[in-house]
Design brief:
The chain is of the alpha+beta class. It is built from 9 helices and 12 strands. The strands form 2 sheets. Strands 1, 2, 3, 4, 5, 6, 7 and 12 form an 8-stranded mixed β-sheet that branches. Strand 9 and strand 10 form a beta hairpin. The structure holds (R)-mevalonate. The site of (R)-mevalonate has 12 residues, from helix 5.
Length: 323
Amino acid sequence: MKKVTTSAPGKLMLFGEHAVVYNHPCIVTAVNERMYTTIELLETQEFLLEAPDVKVLDYKKNIKELGNGEIPKDAQFVEVTVKNVFEKYNLSHGIKVITKSDFSSEFGFGSSSASTVCIIKALSELFELHLSNKELFDISYKTVLDIQKKGSGFDVASAIFGGTLYFVTGGKTIEPLSTSSIPLIVGYSGVKADTVALINSVKEFSSKNPQLVEGVYNSIEIIVNKAKEEIENKNWEQVGILMRENQKLLQSLGVSIQKLDDMISSSIAAGAYGAKLSGAGGGDCIIALAPAEKNKDVYSAIQKVEGKILHASTNAKGVRLEL
Ligand code: MEV
């Protein structure tokens, strides 16, 4: 039976998290750790899913039942993505989906968004839909909103387009930055962040302090716009300084935690130009930028406070077919 394999990169938010949910820009880079999806057409009218990385094995459903009933959390993105594509393009065919990831779903690299993008690309190939990147984005973003209710869509844009993007909420702007690799240091906190819970806690804080939060978002926007320039100029010292400023603003929204703060301050004490959390906060990863000769010291400083160094290079290629 016909089958297709696609892959899409994970991502790291560089600047602008949280503000980007509310009509402000952010900068995101795709990392070279990828998610892979194989989809095979079946003779039966079944939807089968094997996602061994998240321990979903032998998950099975009639395709008429897609999206109905109790869906295990780790099967949600895959099932709702298939349902959305089938509904939009009037498809009905049994399929087997196998997902496999280079990275742990715990890191906050965006395994769900990368798998959504992989699946849509694979279905586009299998059913000859010839979807453009914009169409891929629209249906991926719909899937994110169906499941999470809130979110900017920056993660699916990164998985589709790859590279390093300047992105505004809902894909209003998706602009590739002209930069090659960014010499980022990535430290994993060991704590899994709950993005939806963090978005909701910021929303609650904002409802009590609307002017304060609007001010924070506007300041973040200024930092994002400045960082765009400095990244394109490869001025890593300035980019690091902007990271510190962005981190202070994230702290004022209440999304940082002690473990992240410790990793960040240790990185800076060890000679990094700057560091910040990356993503929703509450856990996941920090990113730091340091002069090359200080990298080893920064690695040790992060490890000393029990962070784990992740070796991920940036500016990776977007979604693609695998042969
Ligand atoms: C989460 O990684 C980043 C947030 O800005 C959410 C989003 O943009 O969808 C908090």
